[in-house]
Every structure is written in structure tokens, then in C-alpha cells.
TrEMBL record, chain A:
It comes from the Bacteria. The keyword Transmembrane applies. The chain crosses the membrane at residues 12-29, 35-60, 72-93, 113-133, 145-163. It comes from Gelidibacter maritimus. Keywords: Membrane, Transmembrane, Transmembrane helix. This is Rod shape-determining protein MreD.
From TrEMBL, chain B:
It comes from Gelidibacter maritimus. This is Cell shape-determining protein MreC. The keyword Glycosyltransferase does not apply. NCBIfam families: PRK13922.9-3. The gene is mreC. Keywords: Cell shape. GO terms for cellular component: plasma membrane. One of its GO terms (biological process) is regulation of cell shape. InterPro entries: Cell/Rod_1, Cell/Rod_MreC_2, MreC, MreC_beta-barrel_core. Belongs to the MreC family. Residues 110-258 form the Rod shape-determining protein MreC beta-barrel core domain. It holds the Pfam family MreC. The keyword tRNA-binding does not apply.
Length: 168, 274
């Protein structure tokens, strides 16, 4: 348990630092930035205390917000994501989730892809809606969500593949 | 009472979610109103220190460009200094250098710059310790950058002109028609000059500079050139698309301007506004 806690704490800090120091400055084609720090929420162990999880998600989003001067947009998106995550776990993984025994590096690619895509798009949609805060610019919001979303999905999948423990 | 406690315990995840979501919404809305984003900004000591370390490494990659910009600025200043006639200095002709005497300039390094969001901020490495205060102007040798919005002991965060909340008084260089410089979030290369009278002789290629009406910037700091313009929907003013002189995506060293007479000007203008 302590090892898992330490592991999660390290992951939290590393993801926030990597996000604010590297991935916030990519600006691909002018404005497309990937938000890979939500990997923390996506890969958080499924059988853990949900209240604590929601709170940790808030802390995560809040740290990124402080670094990027964006008010509370990341925090809001992360909290929502953490709260609605069980629905998507059930939707993408079905029966495995019911037994509370998901190992993300052992699930098949298609269900992992669905799960990642759904969570990332929802996170980006909430974040950009709050950041732009203007319903008349809905096209801009959707456009940013889509492009950044695709970028984030690809990067997150690559990162999970690179850093997953070796299979026997 | 028992039932209330049970209810809270049963729904504690949902309640925590609601509380935290409300808190983040509060922060978000607060960050949309000027001078109220006090709690969360990257000028606090934790983020400042992290950006300082990162900047210490990243700075070296921009040295060539920085040197070129400094050289260019030196050349311009030299050409002004050497073209000054001794007689003009002695006479009571009011030259532009003397006019600036009530502005104090300080240099600073940019630790963090963003330009892809709709509300962009910079973090610079000078703060209260170096007598940087809120509402000081920030420029580079090429043009304006923004206005200081928050300060801590060692750092300050700057509201970039690439921010939907930024409104800066600006005018045409060749006439005195004034307008406001805003940003429509579309491109970091362009800003928009609005509320400029339709009687103004705007032409493509004209230079736009700061107007003397604000207490923040001195008059005559360059902003950009007219790229295109059209009449706004009301039909009585132009919307001018301004190509910025500054490359807002690459800013290293900046100057912070203090207006020593700002308090005096403000106290003079106040009774009229109330």
C-alpha cells in the first residue's frame, strides 16, 4: 500500500511538472496543446476511495491552474472527470470493472481506446467551455476540443505503452 | 439529525464533488474579472521558483536572437543620440527624450509566456522587492507586451495584450484618432483596434502606437501596423486588424515602465469621473 501511495505521489508531481514545463509550450499549429496530466486520473486505481480520488483530482487540476494562470478551469474539468469516471469504466470494460480488478496494462486495446477517448474529450470540452466562457464561440470550443483531444489521445496512448511494465 | 448525518455520509462523494466543482467555478469566474484574480496566479513563490529553474536552462537557446534584438536597439538609440544637435539640447525645445523623464524603466526577464489560450499571462522575475507594482506597463524594444496585474515578493504576473480582458488605449501615429486595442483570440500575431472614428484616415501599412490617455504607457510606444480594416456593425467606427511588431510568441527581456506621475494624474481625473 505504501509503495502504491509513493508511486502515485511521484506520478502526480512528475505529470504536473512535465505538463507545465513542456506540454504547455508545444503550441502545435499555433494553439494545439496536449493535456497529458489527466493520465493521473485515467490510470488511478479503480478500487480506491472515491471521495479521496475526487479531492486528488481537484488538487491536480488546481496545481496546473496555478502554473498556467487559468483560474479554475483545469480543476473544474478534473473534478468532473473524476466524479463521472466509474460510468465510463463500466461502459468501456464491462464485466472486469464489476469485479473491481482492472489492470490497465492488461486490458485489450480497443476498450482502452474507447475509455481514453471518452474521458479526454469530456475533459477538454469542459475545460475549453470554461476557458473561453462564451456560448457564441461554440465552434471555436468544439474545434479546440477536437484538435487538442486527438493530440492528447495519441500522446497518452504512446505514454501508457512506453511506461507499462513488461508483459511476460 | 441522525437522518441528516446519514444522508451526508451516503452522498459524501457527490457533496465533495459539488463543493470542489463550485470552488473551481468560483476561481474561474473570478479570473475573468480584472484585478480580482488574486489567489491563483503564477507569481507565487512555488511556481516562480519552478519557472526560474526551467528558464535558467531554456534561456541559452535564445541567446542569439536576444543579442540581435539588443544590437538592433542599441543601433537605434545610438542613431538618436548622435543625431542630436547640441544647439537643440540647449534651447528650450522639448525633445522626446526629455518628455519621458517622468517614466522610470526597469528591466526584467520573462519566465513564462503563453499565447494559445484566450486569457494569456506572462510571469516576470521582478516583484515587490524591485518596486514593481500593479498597473505598471511592460514593453520590449519592439513594442508593448502588457500590464502588470499581480505582484509577489520576487515575481510579477503580467496581463498580456493577447488576453480578452486587455484593453489598451492606442492611436494612429499620423493623426490623433484614438481607439482601444483588444484581442479576438484568433492569432497571436494580430490584435484589433476598435472604436476608432470612421472619420480617421486609416490606410493599410499605417503605424499604430499607444495614446497618451492612459496613466500606464507613455505616448508613442509602437504597437504594430494596419493589416486590414473594415467598418463595424454599428457603422460609425472602424475595426482595424493590427499586425504586431512584437513576436508575442518569443519574448525574453522586457522593460517595466513606472509612471512617476500616475497618482497625480489619477487624482486630477477622479472628480470628473465620479
Amino acid at each position: 500500500m505504501t509503495k502504491l501511495t509513493l508511486n502515485l505521489a511521484a506520478r502526480f508531481i512528475v505529470l504536473v511538472l512535465v505538463q507545465v514545463l513542456i506540454f504547455n509550450h508545444i503550441n502545435f499549429l499555433g494553439y494545439i496543446n496536449p493535456y497529458i496530466y489527466i493520465l493521473f486520473i485515467i490510470l488511478f486505481p479503480a478500487n480506491n476511495n472515491r471521495t479521496l480520488f475526487v479531492f486528488l483530482a481537484f488538487l491536480l487540476g488546481f496545481s496546473v491552474d496555478v502554473f498556467s494562470d487559468s483560474g479554475g478551469v483545469h480543476a473544474a474539468a478534473c473534478v468532473t472527470l473524476a466524479y463521472i469516471r466509474p460510468i465510463f469504466l463500466k461502459f468501456s470494460f464491462g464485466t472486469i470493472y464489476d469485479y473491481q480488478s482492472i489492470k490497465f496494462n492488461q486490458t485489450d486495446f480497443s476498450s482502452k481506446f474507447t475509455y481514453f477517448t471518452a474521458l479526454i474529450l469530456i475533459h477538454h470540452l469542459i475545460m475549453y467551455s470554461l476557458e473561453i466562457f462564451n456560448i457564441s464561440k461554440i465552434i471555436l470550443i468544439l474545434q479546440k476540443t477536437l484538435f487538442s483531444g486527438i493530440f492528447t489521445i495519441i500522446l497518452c496512448l504512446i505514454i501508457t505503452i512506453l511506461f507499462s511494465p513488461k508483459r511476460k | 439529525m441522525q437522518q441528516i448525518i446519514n444522508f451526508v455520509l451516503r452522498n459524501k462523494t457527490f457533496l465533495v464533488f459539488l463543493l470542489l466543482f463550485g470552488l473551481s467555478l468560483f476561481f474561474t469566474i473570478q479570473s475573468h474579472s480584472y484585478h480580482k484574480s488574486k489567489f491563483i496566479n503564477s507569481s507565487n513563490f512555488v511556481t516562480g521558483a519552478v519557472y526560474q529553474t526551467a528558464n535558467g536552462i531554456g534561456q541559452y537557446f535564445n541567446l542569439i536572437k536576444e543579442n540581435k534584438a539588443l544590437l538592433e536597439e542599441n543601433r537605434m538609440l545610438k542613431s538618436i543620440v548622435h543625431n542630436l544637435d547640441v544647439d537643440t539640447i540647449r534651447s528650450d525645445f522639448k525633445d522626446s527624450l526629455k518628455l519621458d523623464a517622468h517614466f522610470k524603466f526597469r528591466t526584467a526577464n520573462v519566465y513564462k509566456n503563453s499565447y494559445s489560450q484566450s486569457a494569456n499571462y506572462l510571469t516576470i522575475n521582478k516583484g515587490k522587492k524591485d518596486s514593481i507594482e500593479v498597473d505598471y506597463g511592460v514593453i520590449t524594444s519592439q513594442g508593448i507586451v502588457g500590464i502588470v496585474e499581480n505582484t509577489s515578493q520576487n515575481y510579477a504576473s503580467v496581463l498580456s495584450i493577447l488576453n480578452t480582458r486587455s484593453r489598451i488605449n492606442a492611436q494612429l501615429k499620423k493623426t490623433n484618432h484614438i481607439g482601444s486595442l483588444v484581442w479576438n483570440t484568433e492569432s497571436p500575431e494580430f490584435a484589433q483596434l476598435i472604436d476608432i472614428s470612421k472619420f480617421a484616415p486609416v490606410a493599410i501599412g499605417d503605424t499604430i502606437m499607444t495614446g497618451g490617455q492612459s496613466t500606464i504607457f507613455p505616448k508613442g510606444i509602437l504597437i504594430g501596423t494596419v493589416n486590414s480594416y473594415n467598418i463595424d456593425s454599428g457603422g460609425d467606427s472602424y475595426i482595424v486588424n493590427v499586425k504586431l511588431f512584437n513576436d508575442m510568441t518569443n519574448i525574453g527581456h522586457v522593460y517595466v515602465i513606472e509612471n512617476l506621475q500616475a497618482a497625480e494624474l489619477k487624482s486630477l481625473q477622479k472628480p470628473k469621473n465620479d
